[in-house]
Amino acid sequence: MKTPRTRQGRRRGLALGALTVCVGFLMSLVPSTGAAAAASGPPLSVPQEALDNSVWCDGNVNPTSGKKTVLLVHGVGFDARDSWSWGYQRALTKDGFAVCTVQVGNFGRGEAAQGAEYVVNAIREARERAGQNISVIGHSAGPPLALWAMKYWPDVAESVDDMIGLAGAIKGTIFADAVCVVDKCPALAWQLSRDSNFVNALNDQRVNPDIDVTSLFSLTDEGIQPAREVSSYDGGTNIAIQDHCRPWLVGHVGMLYDGAGYKLALDALNHPGPADPARVPDLCGNPILPEFDALGFAKSGIEGAGKYLGIIGEPFIGAEPALPAYAAG
């Protein structure tokens, strides 16, 4: 009587063992959800529809065009069109690059870590459309947002080969408190002040060393000061325009059309590694970048100024916003 039961139990055991092996094999073919999430960084809080609507790419951003893709990230107030349509976008297209832009929410006047999520999504979108790694150029608050995205989202860092900053507030600016009233400031002003928690978190460790970081800035920038200190990125190549072109008066917005700055950015895009002034012939030969649209610049300047001044309409708060949990540790 015991023998049939033993055989039946043995058969069930063998069947169960085989099923376990099969399930284990199939599970090994599926990536762990936790591991995938860790590899792609923290989840995004901005609705995906808003993120997707913020990205624009020209028709050459595809795997068959043979053109390198450059994503342009604007700063505070000026939107993507105000910042790039009359200058860098035209010049890069003429020089054989494909171009994408991102429109950061609320014209870049909002909380910085949330603004960086727009850059995270834009880099992913541009990389997917291009079918290869891309380069990023940012202006003003654009470089800190882009570097934040590359620091905390590993898949984003792996999608970028060059990061080029123009007048970047990488370590804040002493003028961030200019919009503060009685110890209350907009969130972004707190975050872009010197020695803020946001600035310290951004700069406590370099982004992926595979990314070549070039920071270009002007010593006569009226908004980002002290320029050499706050626009320099530790572990990157930091270039003051006036160290090579004297006398050269370039303001904050002027970095968007400065001829020497554009030549250095182009050098970084066209060569392995960061920009090298010694490689650029006639660096100071033209103060204005090629394809400059003066009428477009004038119109964008007027419209952008209104958007920039809109920061005084942002909520004024009594302390810097807490860092996101992924950056607070």
UniProtKB/TrEMBL annotation:
Q: Which GO terms describe its biological process?
A: lipid catabolic process
Q: Which Pfam families does the record associate with it? A: Lipase_2 (PF01674)
User: Could you tell me which SUPFAM superfamilies the record lists for this protein?
Assistant: alpha/beta-Hydrolases
Q: Record keywords: Amino-acid biosynthesis included?
A: no
Q: Give me the segments passing through the membrane.
A: none
Q: Which domain of life is it from?
A: Bacteria
The signal peptide annotation in the UniProt record is 1-37
Q: Which UniProt keywords apply?
A: Signal
Listed GO molecular functions? hydrolase activity
List the PANTHER family.
LIPASE B
- The protein in question is named Lipase B
* Annotated source species: Dietzia timorensis
